[in-house]
Structures are given as C-alpha cells and as structure tokens.
Amino acid sequence: MSKELMLQNIEKAQHEIDSKKNIVKNGKMRQRYHFMAQTGWLNDPNGLIYFRGKYHIFYQYNPYEGFWGSIHWGHAISDDMMHWEYLPLALAPSETYDDHPRGGCFSGSAAQHDGKLFLMYTGAANEGGGVGQTQCIAYSEDGIHFEKYEGNPVLTAPEGVPVNQFRDSKVWKHEDTYYMVCGASRDHKAQALLYRSDDMFHWTFFNVLAESRGEWGHMWECPDFYPMGDKYVLMFSPMGVGEHTSVYLVGDFDYQTGRFSHYISGEVDWGFDYYAPQSFLAPDGRRIIIGWANEWEWMPLWKDWGPTYKEGWCGFFNIPREVRMMENGTLQFLPVAETEILRQDPICQDMFVVTEAEAELKAGDGVAFELKMKIDLEETDADMLELILRSGEGKKTVCLFDFKNAQMSVDRNASDGWSRGVSRSTMFLKGKKELDIHILSDQSSLEIFANEYQDNHANNIFAGNAQNRILIRTYGGRAVIREYESYGMKDCFRGND
Ligand code: FRU
Q1: Which part of the chain is the Glycosyl hydrolase family 32 C-terminal domain (predicted)?
Q2: What domains are there in the chain, each with its CATH number?
Q3: Is 0.90 topped by the overall pTM?
C-alpha cells in the first residue's frame, strides 16, 4: 500500500513538472551551465555518488512552487558533471515518518551496497504533532526507481537530542563497515554523531565524532566527513555562528575510538550563496564537493532567495569543486577541470598593465564567461585593483582586491536592483609573488576564486543581458597582469552546444 502511495506521489509531481517545464525553461534568469531543477524549488545536494559509470546527484526539491516545502528528492545523472539528464524523482513524501507538509524527505546521502544503490535520508514526520526527524533507508536495483525500507525509520534521535534536531546523514564505507555522521544538537550545542552498521539497515551509535563548545553554534546542518591524505576533514553548515555559511575542520581521526581531533578551521566559501556542500569521490580519486547556491532566512546577511520564483523556479548548485590540501593543512576548492569543456571563444594575453584609467576586458558575451589572470605582486604598486563585472544600464558588481588592507570584497549593492550586501574575506598575501584570480560568471551568479582557491566568493546576482561589460582599474598605482585567459561558456541547458 505505502509503496504505491510513494509511486502515486512521484507521478503526481512528475505531471506537475511536465505541465510547467517548457514555460519555466525559457525564464530569463535561468542559468546556462549551473545545475538547476526543471521547475520549482531546489536546495541541498543529496546522495552524490559515482554509480555504474555515471555521476548521480539528488536534490532537495519542491516540484509545486518556487519556494521551500513538501520536500521530494529530485534526481539527475551525468557523464561529465556539466551536462545533466533529469531522471524521475527518487523520493516523494508518503509515510507518516516523512510526509509533513513543512517537511518531507530531508537531506541525506548515497552508498553502494549489495549491488544496489542505497539512500539514507532524513524523514521529517507528520506524526506526533511535531516535525520529528529520523533516519530512513531507500534502495534501488536499477539506480532509478527507489523503494523505502519497510523497517523505517532505522534511527531516531538519541536521548538528550531534540526530535527536530537530528538530520542530514552522510554514509561512507571503511573496510567492511558502513559509517554515518549525522547533525544533532544537545544542550543547545552542535554535535556530529557517528554511527556504524554492517548491513545498511541496522545502525548503532559509535561516538560523538566532534562537537561545538559554543564556538561552532547550536546545530550543524549537512555534516560530511572524509579523508585527505593522512588527515580528516569535517565539513558542515553551522547554525548560530554569525555569517559562516560552510566551514571545514581538519584534524586526525581514529577508527578505534570514533573521535575526531581538529586543529585547523577554514571557510569553504565567503560569499552569500554557498550552503550545505556534500562531497563524493570521483572514479579518479578526486574529492569533489557540490554546494547549494543560496542561504536560509535565519542567516544574518540573508535578504531573500532572489526574484526567480516569478519565473516558477528557485535554486541552483554552484560548480562542482575539487578539494585539495595545502602543505599547511588548509584546504583549496577549485572548479573541477571538466568546466574546461564548456569553453569557447578564447582570448589570451601574456601581460598588460592596469592603471587608474578604467579599461575594458573581453570575456565571452560578458554574461556567461570564465576569466583567469594573475596579478604580478612584485611589479604591482597599486593599493587596490577593482574589477567591475556585469556592468551596464547603471548597474554593476564590484570586486575589489585591496592589497593595503589585505581584503577582498564583492559588492552587490548595485548589482541588479534586488540583491544586497558585500561579501568580504581576508586576503593573506605576505611572501607571495602573485595573486591568482578565477571567475565563473553565469546568467544569475558570480563565483570568484582567488588567492590559491582559498578566497572564494559565490554570490547570486540577477543581472540582465545588457549588463555585459567587464571593466578594470587600479587605485594608487599600477598593476601588472599576467597570463590573462578568458572564454565564453557554452549553454548546457538549451541544447545549442
Ligand atoms: C540544509 C537543510 C537541512 C535539511 C534540508 C531541508 O539546507 O536545512 O538541514 O535536511 O535543508 O530541506
């Protein structure tokens, strides 16, 4: 019976998508190469996995409107992480443990077990009068059609953890055992709880992997735990720590005790729009993360989710990023090499000098483009370098590299008449010979990577096509630019590539 209800709810959602997708697809604010759902609302990436020769992404999804609610799991596959094929929805709310209208099938992850594709997700329940959160299992023989486990939920919140603060399980396999880390809150402090299982169905508590003493907030959404060389990384989106959206901790881990001891912390991204990243392993061993390009209304710098709901949709993912570790143990987050397959119309220049007189740069059509360059710090004596992006019709987004004050900032107060705020990061350049800058611009977003991929700013802006000029200038001296490359970016969604 309940198996049928989930299929009915998927079919109903699928009808809704089919009836709207051809209109939504023509929305002026739709991205050209960042992953979006066909219609409706999207938030966290879930269940990222390379399975039987394809990249799979699932996503928190409301097919019924461009706002959050009634959460399903959308599903898409790809050969290259750039071009995605939509598959039928994987999960729909259907059971008392996952069908709350302000809940549904919340975030989780995927693992291959017993030749099948397993999903572990958070059920947000309709029972008991509250939004109780439990961990649930679904599995699939073909990697497309899923069935919920009849023994769900497989885990409920442990004593001392409020029932609505136990979510976002991330599963992985080590030797012959499955491990799972889940976000929780105890005594108003965040915890990452570690569980283990031999068969994906029966789970037992192992240890508190890590916890906040208050400095890292009261809840960690979407915790993820993975090795990097001989170190381990815990990555999460903390609630209750000001402007942090997605952070990482680096340290040591012992499978004997289930304890993580960390001594480095850092920011995955400093922009307004990078939340709930999840990682997975590519077949060639790269650790890749994908993050949702937005943030929640409880965050201090939040304004709204943007104007795209007017076109019947909301939400996209930032470009997949490869995680690398520097010698000092901090992390870098680089756009995956696959973005290069989208390049067209290259422009390269070995060297040029920028002065206080504004000059124009060319990159694709000035809307969807990639731009890379290096500032030669030994030859540069300017106090600041300013890059003005998506400029036109009196609007612009200003990216400032302030050498004197060691700060990078991206100002979107004049971006589009809608977005607001200045994202800022400390740009530590002592002893460096050059500053690398890498920009991915799409119809409605700017991802700016700088300083060895540690000063990353993902910001959504909803600029029109006439905002297509790129300008550059300095303040207080000159700057020498080397290895300038720019490209237009192919459209992955409108089939003109
Ligand atoms: C993070 C999050 C998760 C939750 C999901 C609900 O963005 O709040 O904690 O599972 O979104 O859609």
Answers
A1: 342-479
A2: 3-334 (2.115.10.20), 341-489 (2.60.120.560)
A3: yes
